[in-house]
Amino acid sequence: MTSTTRTAREQIPLAQPVIGDREEELVLQVLRSRRLSLGPLLAPFEEAFARSVGARHASAISSGTAGLHLALRGAGVGDGDEVITSPFSFVASANVAVYERARPVFADIDPVTLNLDPRAARAAVTERTSALLPVHIFGYPADLPAFERFGLPVVEDACEALGAIHADGTPVGGSGHPAVFGFYANKQLTTGEGGMVTMADPALKERIDSERNQGRAANMDWLDHDRLGFNYRLSDLACALGLAQLERLDDLLAGRAHVAALYRQALAGIEGLDLPCPDAGRLRRGWFVFVVQLPRGTDRDLVVRELGSRYGIPSKPYFPAVHLMSYYRERFGHREGEFPVCEDVAARSIALPFFPVMTEGQVARVAEALRAVLQPA
Ligand SMILES: Cc1ncc(COP(=O)(O)O)c(C=O)c1O
Fold first, then answer.
1. What is the SS3 string spanning 327-338?
2. 351 SS3 class
3. Rounded Cα gap, residues 106 and 123, in angstroms
4. Which residues line ligand 1 (CB under 6 A)?
5. What is the tens place of the pLDDT at every residue in 227-238?
């Protein structure tokens, strides 16, 4: 076997968390405390996270989805309301409105940033609109000032955007609106499963802390509950992982930004291939995934298959349009053609392997393979 063939068979993961000694140390600290939930690291994790994004408060939560759900409840969304959001997202950002018997109302996206287009969102406002839920897709900050001008409650889906910075220099999560981060295993910071809601309002923090814990008030007896609640707690074992990663977040983010820059160079010049849009002014993307849009007319399934079978490189369509998923078609009657920009982008996007310790050689292999599949000699 030649070395080229051997290299070609080495599997590069699509995503891979970086776990260090500090995670082990803090997990052991929690184990030794014998308090595995609502224990010693919950408040330190929340406080350190809030500081890191310049927020006044933060509430740790069992997932990004759970955080979005409680943040929408906190914004007063309920039965029959409408929540305007992006159809180019992970399905959870729309589902959370449905949890509260509200209707997710989609509006098209900006073809460059891939975020909810404020003008399209404005056109979708009705007297039933009770909140806006912009998504900082792929870590690129949404145009928050434009959404703030609507005068409606804003809940930010920042699940993919840890480390991102708005054009005015404010970190995503530090604008005062509830902003929800996700800590699933592929995220910039991971606790396996988990999330965090940041906010300026202490009353919202109190409400979310109670609702994540079955509706108990902080000073209330164990079995009394003064509101409907959920079990959306984050265990202290997860907080230990999160705190350890927060301590070296700058390195983790820098690693991702470096890999993105390598990709940008390695993929330059492939005709019709659209790369993630670059940062503008002081705005910074918090790198989460490296998603490219294939040239129009390309058979995407074939590209994904060939990358896998011929080069051992995983990739996946990312994201499918939410409004065209079976549940959304059936429940809300959505059809092709409603959001043409989103549908075009969703039909062409694939996520390439991306993680902070990816080597230059691995990036080059992915780029060469993609070039070969798209431009066969
Ligand atoms: C944009 C977006 N919203 C919401 C979520 C949901 O987060 P979680 O998987 O932690 O529930 C994710 C996570 O993948 C996401 O990418």
1. HHHHHHCCCCCC
2. strand
3. 11
4. 63-65, 89-90, 92-93, 135, 157, 159-160, 182, 184, 195
5. 999 999 999 999
Residue carrying the six token digits 């298959």: 305
210 CA distance to ligand 1 middle (Å):
22
How far is Cα 64 from Cα 87, in angstroms, rounded to an integer?
17
- pLDDT tens digits along 83-131: 999 999 999 999 999 999 999 999 999 999 999 999 999 999 999 999 9
| Contacts for 221 with CB less than 8 Å, ≥ 6 apart | none
Q: How far apart are CA 148 and CA 230, in angstroms?
A: 30
Q: How far apart are the C-alpha atoms of 164 and 190, rounded to whole Å?
A: 16
Q: How far is the CA of 8 from the centre of ligand 1 (A)?
A: 32
Q: For this structure, is 205 an active site residue?
A: no
- Structure tokens, 370: 């993609």
What CA–CA distances, in Å, run from 303 to 12, 113, 237, 374?
16, 24, 40, 8
Q: Which residue is listed with tokens 């305007």? A: 84
Q: What are phi and psi of 180, to 5 degrees?
A: -115, 125
How far does residue 90's CA lie from ligand 1's centre (Å)? 6
Query: What residues contact residue 310 under an 8 Å CB cut-off, 6+ apart?
Result: 8, 369, 373
Per residue in 3-28, pLDDT (tens digit) is 444 444 578 999 998 899 999 999 99
Which amino acid does the sequence have at 221?
D
Residue whose CA lies nearest to ligand 1 atom number 1: 90
